[in-house]
Each structure stands twice: as C-alpha cells, then as structure tokens.
Amino acid sequence: MSNITFTMIKPDAVANGYTGKIIDQILEAGFTIQAMKYVRLSEETAGAFYDIHRERSFFKELVDFMTSGTIVAAVLVKDNAVADFRTLIGATDPAKAEPGTVRNRFAKSIEANAIHGSDSDANAAHEASFFFSAFERF
Ligand code: GDP
Questions:
Q1: What is the CA radius of gyration of the chain?
Q2: Which of 44, 98, 117, 132 has the greatest count of CB atoms below 10 A from its CB?
Q3: What average pLDDT does this structure show over 92-105?
Q4: Where does ligand 1 bind, in terms of residues with CB under 6 Å?
C-alpha cells in the first residue's frame, strides 16, 4: 500500500482561482501536505514530465497547456494515497468524472482538467523527486 502521491493543480484551475478550494478538498479527504510550491513549467520540463505521452496526438497541446501559466506542485501523504487520490480527482474527462470529484467541480475539458494525480506508486516516487529535493519535503 502506498503512502505518497504527487499532484499538480493545473494552469486552468490556478488561473480560475480554485487553488484554495482544491487544497481544502484534498485536506478534507485526509491527505497531508509533505511539500508544495508554485512552479512555471518550461517546454523542456513539461515535455520531460509527460515523456510517456510523447507519441500521443495531443502531446504538443498538452505541453502548450501545461506551460501556459503557473501550477501548484505538491507531494501528499495518506494510506493508499495513489488510489484514494485518483478517486478524489475523478476521471480524466470531467464530463465522465463522478459528482463531487475535483475534476467534476473545477475542470472544463479533457485537457484543462484542473489537476494531476500519479497513477502508480513508482510514478508517484518519480514525479515527487522530479519536482522536489529531499530538503523541500517535510
Ligand atoms: P490522467 O492520468 O487522468 O491525468 O490522464 P492521462 O495520463 O491519460 O493524460 C495526461 C493528461 O493529458 C490529462 O490529464 C490531460 O490533461 C491530457 N489529455 C489526456 N487525454 C487528452 C486528449 O484526448 N486531448 C488533450 N488535448 N489532452 C488530453
């Protein structure tokens, strides 16, 4: 069972002023914050983060979107963190996300879908260390 996951509040949600409401929903669901910061991704860092999607048709749009504004990156702690966080954020496409999930409440489209959540323990560890050094994690 995992105990950390990695998240980004994406540019659409930060620009729309949803950061506080989203953090509140995350804390209410029982996660604690091990690390958090504002980040503006470059094309290179966004491309590296989403390297697994490099061959997908939407890769360039995804990189353009993720570099379009400030994001909030965070490492979250909870028992069963990866699976519980995926449940909390809902389906990739907000039109298919369960009522009350973060994407159902705050996302507008499959691309501008408000929030990222790691999809495995291995990716959570990799993504957390991609963004944060050991000195930034508490
Ligand atoms: P996630 O794990 O739910 O974030 O979904 P994926 O790993 O499949 O996709 C990563 C991100 O790429 C999603 O969160 C979306 O921001 C974006 N994305 C996924 N599918 C599409 C698509 O069909 N079109 C576009 N433009 N973006 C997409």
A1: 14
A2: 117
A3: 98
A4: 58, 61-62, 92, 110-111, 113, 116, 119
Examine the pLDDT at 44 and tell me if it is beyond 70.
yes
- For residue 1, the model assigns a pLDDT of 55
**CA 10 to ligand 1: nearest atom:** 16
Residue 2 — pLDDT band, cuts 50, 70, 90?
Answer: low
- Superfamily holding 4-136: Nucleoside diphosphate kinase-like domain (3.30.70.141)
Residue 116 falls in the annotated catalytic set: yes
92, 122, 116: which is closest to 13 by C-alpha? 116
- How far is the centre of ligand 1, averaged over its atoms, from the C-alpha of 122 (Å)? 19
Looking at every residue in the chain, the average pLDDT score rounds to: 97
